């Protein structure tokens, strides 16, 4: 069934409803209309990295980890798994009359906001700081989730539209002031890609205001969405965001006024309870019946496209597909690809034949919370890093000693103990071992969404880039032992690694790697697989390098506009081998530009890597300060292997965004940099490789 057919069926069905019934269908918990054979439906489901909050499901790495893989095909495959497991669960549960929240087929994912500031607690829900990377990965996720048949497998939702990335504690009253250039260049491209290219079925408005207008009732944003981009799906508010119109933003007087403003500005579905006042708004002449009807038609169009009204080929998907072996294997592959090797002085990979005793230390070593991130499902089996290593070393003769070392953030583990009650044990365990795996970082209880994270002093945001003090003491205690040490960082954002960089032999960023994360970590640490992820965010030396958190200008933010060297740059990541771009040239055919790239693995180990292409227009005042990512391709090479790649370069790479927010051709001289990292000095220093530099002149 195509959209036109689905809409026609929706119009015919809605025409049979009373006004009260139509208004009731605009709530996220839409009631049944028994006389028309319409079952109840709850629109609120989550699937950020697996079917979430609805029982058992395959739990993939958190979104920021998936971004580090730089692999759109992986994102697409993951989303296909999610949609099949969602269908299986929907079929089984609805057959038992369970149509509760989180058990539908309309998923409020992906989150394609830009991770512009490392303090934002929800940044790990995103695909990082770059609009091109976010656009490509977000579009792949949507295509995988929705499928490309006439019946949607599941409906995706691009959130949070728009200009939303903290501070969490202010979001219900915050006005994000942003220039036209930053809006068009940074904050909107991913949403446009999901609408135009991926045909995303839903868009969710953000909590904040954008240049004075509530994002869930913005005439400017709606004109962009439905006018310029041609969006045909439905628009949903963030949860209880419409209530903020009169309780936080002060743009409405009461719930009736807020409901009227939202629906008149194109918000079809209310996550919250403010649309209980829609009928009052109609009675008072603030909303027309036609407006209510149109919103209902849009929503039922989605339900018809999903086959929820007429049935579909997916009605027979069995519950046995949930956590199927091939799904779990894909989750492990995702964890392997997402890990980023930030430092290695030769300690990694570890050789179990040379180790008699291995120490595994740290509050995240045996933590399930450090595996899953937020907006997560529940696995039947979890492999923490400790469990993964113990399983891997079983029967090897290697003795493993473990110690907590510190609480994640408190000054002691046992309430009756003195401060630092696990520190001595950690030092003793390290001293008794040949090498140390130190697992530190954060988890979703410290960085996350307002109301979810227990880090209440910052409403889920971070106030600095430091590890909690308890862990900083542990880091120093392990360093004093002088034992060879690998730091495994498990966090969803930038954490200051300056001490670890100076004192430890290797640093491996695992992010929140999902339920299979410990299995993957063991294979990476012992060399069964090579790390191959790249940072999707900048790791800064200090917060002093950044503007105020509430400043939404891109000046000095992210790799595109930063003015000082990074601690670890966007796009950086080592492997156990030596992959380099040995040659590259640009080619034009039929008006399209491509890069023909020769990439070689000069090392002795097989590995994945990511070829990255950055560009800057040298003769335009509107160019970002630094070269910007315009294309990339993941590649796998055997030791000694050479491959020839052809990588398309989008036309947008030859444009800039001016101060009016217009994407234009404003210069003729371009420089392309093609390698396995950014062309910045810090990346060149740490990789020892120089990207191929190509000058290009645009003939207009």
Could you describe the 3D structure shown?
This protein has 700 residues and is of the alpha/beta class. It has 3 domains: 171 residues, Alpha-Beta Barrel (TIM Barrel), CATH 3.20.20.300; 231 residues, Rossmann fold; 119 residues, Immunoglobulins (Immunoglobulin-like, Sandwich). The protein is built from 21 helices and 23 strands. It has a 6-stranded mixed β-sheet with strand order 9-14-13-12-10-11, sandwiched between helices. Strand 6 and strand 7 form a beta hairpin. Helix 16 packs parallel to helix 17. The chain is globular, with a radius of gyration of 26 Å. The model has no long low-confidence stretch (mean pLDDT 97).
The total domain count is 3
Strand order of the largest sheet: 9-14-13-12-10-11
Shape: globular
- In whole angstroms, the N-to-C terminal distance is 44 Å
Find the count of extended strands (DSSP E, 2+ residues): 23
Helix content: 25-40%
Give the name of the CATH superfamily of the largest domain.
Answer: Glycoside hydrolase family 3 C-terminal domain
Structural class call reads alpha/beta
The share of residues in extended strands comes to 15-25%
Secondary-structure map:
Blueprint: H1 3-14, H2 19-24, E1 29-30, E2 41-42, H3 63-68, H4 72-95, H5 131-146, E3 157-161, E4 175-176, H6 180-187, H7 189-196, E5 202-205, E6 209-210, E7 213-214, H8 219-228, E8 234-236, H9 244-247, H10 255-264, H11 278-283, H12 289-305, H13 325-338, E9 340-344, E10 357-361, H14 369-372, H15 385-393, E11 399-403, H16 423-431, E12 435-441, H17 469-481, E13 485-490, H18 498-503, E14 506-509, H19 517-525, H20 558-561, E15 579-589, E16 592-601, E17 607-617, E18 628-637, E19 642-649, E20 656-657, E21 663-664, E22 669-675, H21 681-687, E23 692-697
Helix pairs in contact: 1-12, 4-5, 4-13, 5-7, 13-19, 15-19, 16-17
